[in-house]
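Morning F.,

Quick status update on the modeling queue. The single chain you submitted on Monday has been processed. Sequence for confirmation:
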Amino acid sequence: MHHIATLNWFGILVAALSGFVIGSIWYGPLFQKPWMQLTGMSKEKGAEASMALTFGGAYVLNALGATGLAILLGDHGGWGTGLHTGAFTGFFFIATALGVIYLFEQRPFKLWCINAAYQVVNFAAMGTILGAWPR
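Structure tokens below.
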């Protein structure tokens, strides 16, 4: 594990951006229609939201997740280790925690699949970036 002072902060900030790249594809051409239908979201409703709050908040939360991954990875570098650690974290921690919430909120299974899979891919990408980033 890393001490917080020795973390690669630039790598963490770049890894946090990867969620936007993946999200623009995931919630755009890949799953936009079913996601919007399942959430009741529309382009008009989305345009009413504060973009600074939405995107700024998402970036801060992604940066926190990337920081956690960097700490978890420690000195065990390499893109393969990062990919494995990120995917493992995304599936076994993030997706399962979302699943519990979705069960109690009685949200659709298909929506959980879309959102949980995004998080697995997002964390796998962040882990890959952090693992491959030169220290």
